[in-house]
């Protein structure tokens, strides 16, 4: 259960030099959870539909929110939407449910973050519709539909077969005047609505994620659609309210399913920050210099990435790139096999930059994982961008940036086992994997045996550090005992809960939070400079855990030149 | 437009057609000799280059393999502007794709340049049992509109190299023998009218 100290001391004055967390924890305010969740519900207003007795109370126990129930029991909850209200027609339920439990775990609920190869991209279960039991048992549905009730996208099942279901969702939304319905609870299920002009987005979930998380996931799905079509798609609805949008999104199922999958493994989806590939400062500088060179020649943004990690990025003067746009762009490029075959030139829209207009993206993979994206406003710029790429590629090869990047991908990022022992790192100390650039290139000790111990000192299992000024985060590698994809997903869900409770406008903002349940000790610390999230062994000693967090933040500061891209935003110096 | 220097011709070639007709598969078969049963949708347009050597000249193709999705239609001029050759592709198992192909031809005739060398490729010829568009219909349409016609299969490689060789030959014919900068419009147009049929 929750363990919290009630604070007596006044809140320390937040300064630019963060006060050691020990001091802050003398006044921990993790207010009682009933209150937290009540406030959250209160702020939602506009409830429609029935609140099912008892379900609310269960939700208010914090311990439960962290342990996401993975296997759904048999009975669908009652609801008027038809979503789970009636039984499907197919017989032999037992066998089917059996099969689904496995199925639901393996693919419906996503693969492990570090072995994404096992997650098969693309839409599954297209044969399903709302009459299929299997469809009803999916834990998390996402829908996009038009204001006239026409289906646009569904995570599972064929959109066209879901026309009736879509119309029902539309009816629920329009039943509440002014399209203001935000949340319906029905038993274990939450139905979250987001209205964006003529486009409605709906999530139906029994994953116990907080409303805010689900809503921000809907926002990202909407953003992904804008990235593909721009907001000018609204005009089609002005001309014809019954406009069918599905042909316009032809072939993009995979982009959406990969985004939805990333809600399980990519912290960028809830932190609204991006992460960098760890690299020696000089190496990143070299990459930045050549990107800056092309940015000066009329390229709006030049971005070099390894999978979802940024190697370097540069924007033209006054142009700044929102982390959400980067997430959506990287997801778009990585999920489309087409970009890997050849160089491409494609219209894309960055919704946070300008939701109305297309930019043109030159995309080229420099090796299997590393790709360069050059964005411009000019539709004729292909040959210029191609020349830029040739120049960039030459410089990157000459300065070994590409090989350094590949090595860093192999080595991975920070590991809790490597946390320096002293609270202040000895001069010259850099953890082995962060100093690879200074070691002889082929020294075998750089490669560590995986999953040797059981986490770091004081039972530290994992941490995420988000730099507020840089819009960047660093997340430690997963290590024992958080090995399986299931455990990793559960931890991310717990972080999401923590994140949304820390950012809850109703009861926040909080500075610190300490939580203990049967799975973890979770610790969160927010200062004007950073947000820090850590997970410990559930039996970890509190004082020691707090001390350890201080050491981690010092460690992060010590290696910040290698794990963060400096000088990428106007706020940094 | 084709640029000639000595016997080197650089030519921009664009592939157009409905989604799933096999544009990318044709290009990959030609450029890399590959074929995948499940080729993913192209995003925007993919750019390839390939050099073909004929006796008369060496042709360097800049190939724009455009996405067939409806959302990219309005952006097509960006890719076909300045092209020396265009291949409009349809799928013999889909009447819809043939209708779409005819729309592409109309658009090219309306907006493209009059010297554009146009081929109509009836792809997926290996799927004879699922055929919906008769070979005569394709031929007939090509004849009426001054296109060259070929039935192709990226899967079996049938007529794929032939398609690009035929384009190359037309390009050589269409370009002046020496880089004098003179253009022989009359002859080019004459060539364009001819109908080539290798499918029989």
TrEMBL record, chain A:
<protein>
    <recommendedName>
        <fullName>Vacuolar fusion protein MON1 homolog</fullName>
    </recommendedName>
</protein>
<dbReference type="Pfam" id="PF19037">
    <property type="entry name" value="Fuz_longin_2"/>
</dbReference>
<dbReference type="Pfam" id="PF19038">
    <property type="entry name" value="Fuz_longin_3"/>
</dbReference>
<feature type="region of interest" description="Disordered">
    <location>
        <begin position="104"/>
        <end position="123"/>
    </location>
</feature>
<comment type="function">
    <text>Plays an important role in membrane trafficking through the secretory apparatus.</text>
</comment>
<feature type="domain" description="FUZ/MON1/HPS1 third Longin">
    <location>
        <begin position="459"/>
        <end position="558"/>
    </location>
</feature>
<feature type="domain" description="FUZ/MON1/HPS1 second Longin">
    <location>
        <begin position="298"/>
        <end position="391"/>
    </location>
</feature>
<dbReference type="GO" id="GO:0006623">
    <property type="term" value="P:protein targeting to vacuole"/>
</dbReference>
<dbReference type="GO" id="GO:0016192">
    <property type="term" value="P:vesicle-mediated transport"/>
</dbReference>
<dbReference type="InterPro" id="IPR043971">
    <property type="entry name" value="FUZ/MON1/HPS1_longin_2"/>
</dbReference>
<feature type="region of interest" description="Disordered">
    <location>
        <begin position="1"/>
        <end position="24"/>
    </location>
</feature>
<dbReference type="InterPro" id="IPR004353">
    <property type="entry name" value="Mon1"/>
</dbReference>
<feature type="domain" description="FUZ/MON1/HPS1 first Longin">
    <location>
        <begin position="140"/>
        <end position="258"/>
    </location>
</feature>
<comment type="similarity">
    <text>Belongs to the MON1/SAND family.</text>
</comment>
<dbReference type="InterPro" id="IPR043970">
    <property type="entry name" value="FUZ/MON1/HPS1_longin_3"/>
</dbReference>
<feature type="region of interest" description="Disordered">
    <location>
        <begin position="37"/>
        <end position="94"/>
    </location>
</feature>
<dbReference type="InterPro" id="IPR043972">
    <property type="entry name" value="FUZ/MON1/HPS1_longin_1"/>
</dbReference>
<feature type="region of interest" description="Disordered">
    <location>
        <begin position="427"/>
        <end position="448"/>
    </location>
</feature>
<dbReference type="Pfam" id="PF19036">
    <property type="entry name" value="Fuz_longin_1"/>
</dbReference>
Automatic annotation (TrEMBL), chain B:
<keyword id="KW-0636">Prenylation</keyword>
<dbReference type="InterPro" id="IPR027417">
    <property type="entry name" value="P-loop_NTPase"/>
</dbReference>
<keyword id="KW-0547">Nucleotide-binding</keyword>
<keyword id="KW-0342">GTP-binding</keyword>
<dbReference type="Pfam" id="PF00071">
    <property type="entry name" value="Ras"/>
</dbReference>
<dbReference type="GO" id="GO:0003924">
    <property type="term" value="F:GTPase activity"/>
</dbReference>
<keyword id="KW-0472">Membrane</keyword>
<dbReference type="GO" id="GO:0015031">
    <property type="term" value="P:protein transport"/>
</dbReference>
<dbReference type="GO" id="GO:0007034">
    <property type="term" value="P:vacuolar transport"/>
</dbReference>
<dbReference type="GO" id="GO:0010008">
    <property type="term" value="C:endosome membrane"/>
</dbReference>
<dbReference type="GO" id="GO:0005525">
    <property type="term" value="F:GTP binding"/>
</dbReference>
<keyword id="KW-0813">Transport</keyword>
<keyword id="KW-0653">Protein transport</keyword>
<dbReference type="InterPro" id="IPR005225">
    <property type="entry name" value="Small_GTP-bd"/>
</dbReference>
<keyword id="KW-0449">Lipoprotein</keyword>
<protein>
    <submittedName>
        <fullName>Ras domain-containing protein</fullName>
    </submittedName>
</protein>
<comment type="similarity">
    <text>Belongs to the small GTPase superfamily. Rab family.</text>
</comment>
<dbReference type="InterPro" id="IPR001806">
    <property type="entry name" value="Small_GTPase"/>
</dbReference>
């Amino acid at each position: 259960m929750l363990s919290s100290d009630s604070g007596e001391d006044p809140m320390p004055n937040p300064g630019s030099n963060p006060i050691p967390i020990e001091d802050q924890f003398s006044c921990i305010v993790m207010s009682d959870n009933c209150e937290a969740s009540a406030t959250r519900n209160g702020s939602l207003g506009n409830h429609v539909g029935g609140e099912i007795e008892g379900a609310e109370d269960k939700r208010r126990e914090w311990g439960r929110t962290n342990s996401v129930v993975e296997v759904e029991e048999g009975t669908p909850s009652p609801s008027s939407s038809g979503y789970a209200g009636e039984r499907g027609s197919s017989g032999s339920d037992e066998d089917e449910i059996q099969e689904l439990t496995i199925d639901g775990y393996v693919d419906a609920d996503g693969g492990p973050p570090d072995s994404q190869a096992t997650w098969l991209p693309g839409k599954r279960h297209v044969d399903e519709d709302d009459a299929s039991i299997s469809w009803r048992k999916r834990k998390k549905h996402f829908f996009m539909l038009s204001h006239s009730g026409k289906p646009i996208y569904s995570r599972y099942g064929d959109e066209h077969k879901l026309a009736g279901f879509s119309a029902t969702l539309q009816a629920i939304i329009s039943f509440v005047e002014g399209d203001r319905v935000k949340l319906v609870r029905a038993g274990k299920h939450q139905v979250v609505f987001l209205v964006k002009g003529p486009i409605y987005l709906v999530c139906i979930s029994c994953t116990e994620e907080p409303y805010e998380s689900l809503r921000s996931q809907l926002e990202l799905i909407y953003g992904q659609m804008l990235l593909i079509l721009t907001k000018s798609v609204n005009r089609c609805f002005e001309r014809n309210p019954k406009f069918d949008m599905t042909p316009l999104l032809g072939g993009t199922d995979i982009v959406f399913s990969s985004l939805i999958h990333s809600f399980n493994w990519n912290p960028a989806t809830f932190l609204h920050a991006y992460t960098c590939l760890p690299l020696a400062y000089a190496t990143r500088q070299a990459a930045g210099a050549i990107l800056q060179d092309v940015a000066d020649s009329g390229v709006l943004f030049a971005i070099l990435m390894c999978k979802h990690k940024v190697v370097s990025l540069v924007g033209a003067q006054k142009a700044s790139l929102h982390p959400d746009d980067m997430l959506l762009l990287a997801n778009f490029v990585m999920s489309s096999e087409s970009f890997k075959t050849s160089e491409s030139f494609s219209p894309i829209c960055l919704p946070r930059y300008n939701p109305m207009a297309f930019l043109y993206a030159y995309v080229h993979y420099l090796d299997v994982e590393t790709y360069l994206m050059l964005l411009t406003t000019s539709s004729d710029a292909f040959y210029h961008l191609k020349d830029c790429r040739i120049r960039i590629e030459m410089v990157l090869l000459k300065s070994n940036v590409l090989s350094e990047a590949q090595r860093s991908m192999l080595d991975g990022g920070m590991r809790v086992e490597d946390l320096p022992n002293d609270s202040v790192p000895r001069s010259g100390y850099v953890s082995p994997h962060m100093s690879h650039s200074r070691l002889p290139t082929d020294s075998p000790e750089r490669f560590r045996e995986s999953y040797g111990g059981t986490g770091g000192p004081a039972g530290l299992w994992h941490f995420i550090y988000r730099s507020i000024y840089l819009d960047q985060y660093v997340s430690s590698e997963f290590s024992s005992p958080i090995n399986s994809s299931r455990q990793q997903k559960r931890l991310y869900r717990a972080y999401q809960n923590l994140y949304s409770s820390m950012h809850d406008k109703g009861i926040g903002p909080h500075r610190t939070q300490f939580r203990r349940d049967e799975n973890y000790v979770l610790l969160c610390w927010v200062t004007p400079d950073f947000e820090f999230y850590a997970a410990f062994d559930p039996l970890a000693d509190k004082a020691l855990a707090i001390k350890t967090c201080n050491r981690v933040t010092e460690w992060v500061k010590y290696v910040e030149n290698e794990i963060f891209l400096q000088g990428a935003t106007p706020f940094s110096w | 437009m084709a640029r000639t220097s000595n016997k080197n011709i650089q030519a921009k070639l664009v592939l157009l057609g409905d989604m799933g007709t096999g544009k990318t598969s044709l290009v990959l078969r030609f450029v890399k000799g590959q074929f995948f049963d499940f080729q993913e949708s192209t995003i925007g347009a993919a750019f390839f280059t390939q050099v073909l050597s004929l006796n008369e000249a060496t042709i360097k193709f800049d190939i724009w393999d455009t996405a067939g999705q409806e959302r990219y239609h309005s952006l097509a001029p960006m890719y076909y502007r300045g092209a020396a050759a265009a291949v409009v592709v349809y799928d013999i198992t889909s009447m819809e794709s043939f209708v779409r192909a005819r729309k592409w031809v109309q658009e090219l005739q309306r907006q493209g340049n009059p010297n554009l060398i146009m081929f109509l490729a009836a792809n997926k010829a290996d799927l004879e049992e699922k055929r919906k568009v008769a070979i005569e219909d394709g031929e007939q349409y090509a004849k009426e509109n001054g296109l060259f016609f070929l039935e192709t299969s990226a899967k079996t490689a049938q007529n794929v190299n032939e398609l690009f060789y035929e384009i190359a030959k037309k390009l050589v014919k269409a370009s002046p023998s020496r880089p004098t900068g003179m253009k022989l419009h009359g002859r080019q147009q004459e060539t364009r009218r001819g109908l080539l049929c290798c499918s029989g």
